Structures are given as structure tokens and as C-alpha cells.
Amino acid sequence: MKKTLFDKVWDSHVVRSINNGPDVLFIDRHMVHEVTSPVAFLGLKNRGINVLYPNRTFATADHNTPTINQHLPVADPLSANQLKALEENSKAHGISYWGLGHKKNGIVHVVGPEYGITQPGATIVCGDSHTSTHGAFGAIAFGIGTSEVEMVLATQCIMQPKPKKMRITIDGQLSKGVTPKDVALFIISKLSTSGATGYFVEYAGEVFRELSMEGRMTVCNLSIEMGARGGMIAPDEKTFEYIKGREFTPEGTAWDAAKKYWDTLYTDEGAVFDKELHYTADEIEPMITFGTNPGMGMSISKKIPTAAEVEGAATTYKKSLDYMGYDEGQDMLGKTIDFVFLGSCTNGRIEDFRAFTQLVKGRQKAAHVTAWLVPGSHKVMDAIKEEGLLDILHESGFELREPGCSACLAMNDDKVPAGKYAVSTSNRNFEGRQGPGSRTLLASPLVAAAAAVTGKVTDPRTLY
User: Fold this and answer.
1) pLDDT by residue (tens digit) across 190-200?
2) CATH number of the CATH domain containing 121
């Protein structure tokens, strides 16, 4: 029987199938952070249960962490309490804990791949919706809720209905200035935020094969924003080269055995998907969002659509534009911005900083723009310094902050003030996502860089 990549990984992890119900799925890797884990650990304590496989669980602090002066006590009481709880719970259960000051600390979906925790053919969960990032390695990875975090801690299994399967194929060569972030935002703009609900997506075709592993992570990260349970890309030699030699990656004969299995992880010719979508690379330009969900995106050179041109209720559409202070039919190019955020589990990797730095080199940050450049991990921060990127950034008027989720969400000190516009390389532009009343324009590192030096929405292709 012909199987998809998703089927191969899912079926190999089913412990038990419940008739007319969910599958009991074994979980290879469980990542936890300070926000969704405290209540789960409390549930274990109240029931007198220990973590079943501490060696399969990895904890890092990221959502509530400050991105300056991390050597000082965390000022916010709630954040401090959550961070302390994660540290104490990890210690009590023998779980690897990478807190503030630890050399491995960083955003959970950045450090997982960096240390080889993320591997092809694995099942990976975390109490965070953007766990889909790890699907870039041919893994089944998805976010779970607090009660499910407790379930996995206690049993290393989870009950899940098997999703339907979708394949999105994009062939051709991306144009200059078009990044993996643009590819993802383009797909979401076509499907809307609910177009992949109930599906697990496989990305296929020339565009995804040509992407770097970091680019693939960006695309898979944003799968959740079109409603998908997750996204994945078949592993290849590029994948194996990336993970080889990392701390938690198999070595020697164990590597050979693992590699033999990983080589089987592809969709068989003739395997059937529940839904297939096809696009071409030449359809994709640098993208930017104009509304209050990731599906409200457009090519940066076009005009904001009218209500008649989009699906959905006109009143809801108008409400979104009113919140953003925009009107139908306006150009996005030239609109003034106040903040730029480079970072998050979507675009906080070294390749993102290389792209940003390449564009701002020889230019100066616009005087009125506040720029938060936040690496996704200490590894990324070290690479920025070692590669000389930090010197270039300093010359252009930018400063580098310390690792963390930062301005992706308003759970720490990095909040965009009400009414201000932020070009953000993160993943969500909901009302108040980056701070009460803040207005978020999702974009790629190149679009963010162009905005940072011009002070307005600018097509990065005009700055080459």
C-alpha cells in the first residue's frame, strides 16, 4: 500500500487505535517552557505521578524572559514565578533545564534543532502552537494544550485523531528578494487562516527542496497560521548534513541505523492525499500583512484589497482595517512604521540575521524607528558576533538584544505601544498581539530591514 510521509511516521507511533475515536500516539520528544507547564506539573504532583521519561523531555525558558540584562532578577512577578516553577519542576523530575544564563538557553523551537533534539521520523510535541517548526526535518510536530502536556509527561503518549492529509507543491525558482517567509505568507494569503483546518500538510516541489533547513523551518513554523495541525518536509541529504554531529544526534553505528530508516521517509509515488494544491514560484513576491490575521497578506507592491475582493464578512474586514488605520485600495508601500522586530521562532535564526544585515550594510537606521533585534538562542547570538554581523549592525545604528521570544507576543517587557506600527518577522498579527493596541505588519527579514532604514514600508528589491 502506497503511503505518504505523514502516514509512515504517524502509523509507526500508534500504540493503540480506538474504534471511532483517537489514536494513542507515542511521543519521542517533549519540549516544555515556562508558560504552559506549571499547571501540568501541578497536576502530576496532585496525583502523585512522576514524569515517565525525563530523558525525552527538554525544558527551556523563552516566552517570559527579558531580552536585556538577563543577569539581573526578572522584575515582573508573574514571569519570575513561572520561570522559577519551571526550574524547580525540571529539577524535581530530572529534566534537562536550560534557563536564563545557560549557554543552551533560547526559544524552544530554535534550540531543539540546534542541539539535534529534532530528528527525522520523530513525533514531537510542546505546549506551543508553533511546534510545527520541527516538521522541517520530516518529523510530526504539533502544539498541545496544558492538559495534554500533563498527559505526555505522565505517559509519553497522547490521544489524537489522525488528521487528513494535504500536499502543497510549489515548483520553479524564487525571484531575488523573495524569502521562505514570503512563501509561507503567500500560501496563507491563498488559503486563509482556516483553509488547512483538519489537515497535516506536506510541502513538496522544487521551491522547498531548494530551501535551506532554516528556510524550511520558517515555512513549517507558519503551518499553524492557515489552520493546519502541522506541516512537514521530507528529509534529504541537506537534512542529514544539518543534524549530523549535534549533541543529541546518534553517532557511529547508531547513526548508520538511523540514517537507513530516515532514507525511507518520503511519500511513495502514487500515495493519495485528501487535498492537493499547486502554485508556481513566479507567483510569489515579497509579502506583507495589512490586517489583523496572518491570512490578510498581499504582495508588497499591490494595493489593499476591497471587501468585495476578499471572502468573509464585510463588517469584520472593515473592523480589521479600522484597527490598523488603513483603507481599502491603499498602497502599503510608503506607509510609515515605528518599530521593527527581527526574531521569534519564525525568523530568529542566523540566516535571518545574515539577510537583515546584508541589506542594512552601508545604510543607517531611520531615526524615528525603534528596532529590536533578538536572536533565537545563544548559538545564534554567538554566530552574529563571530561572523562580524554585529559590527555591521552597530555601524548602521542597531543594537543586539539577548535571546528570547521578545516582541512576538506581549508576555515580556518588549511591548509595542498602542497605535504604533511594527514591521515584525514573527508569526501573528492579531489585535494586541505585540502589546495592547499595537499594530503589526508581518514580513520577512528583508522587508523588515528595508523598513528599518527607510522608516516606511519599502520593497527590499529597490535597495539592492
Assistant:
1) 999 999 999 99
2) 3.30.499.10
